[in-house]
Structures are given as structure tokens and as C-alpha cells.
Protein: Preprotein translocase subunit SecD
Organism: Lentibacillus amyloliquefaciens
Amino acid sequence: MSLIPGVVILLVTWWFKKMNFSLFVRIIPGVLTVIAAIILFYIGFVNIRGFEGAAYGILAFFLVIFAIISFLLAKKKDVKAS
């Protein structure tokens, strides 16, 4: 379930990088993903609980993984062949 938003986040980060935006703009998708993951984990842990809440926790975990990949993609320098 986290694959679709994760791929969207990576594509947006890649597009921002390709358009040569500043580093601040390129890391915005990753930051928003981490914030969303924290909110989802909180909702799953405090409000829902049980197995249904665990699904929210798993979703939040994988969204954080996609956010880390997004941060790495945003900070990576382009290597251009000459």
C-alpha cells in the first residue's frame, strides 16, 4: 500500500532535481513524507490500536524508508559524462 505514494514521492523528488531546484525545494517531498508517517503512526498507535493500528504503523515504517531514499536522491550530485 505504501508503494504508490512512495513512488510518487521519488518521482517528484527526481523531477525537482532534474529542474535544478535548490536543495531546500528538493527535500520538501521527503520532509512531508516523514511528517505524514509520524501522523499515521500516531493515529494507528493511539486512536485505532490492535491489528488495524499495526497496519498504520507498517505503512508509516515504509513511508519513512521512501523518505530516506528521497533524501539521498535529492542530495546526490549529478555525474555528467564529458
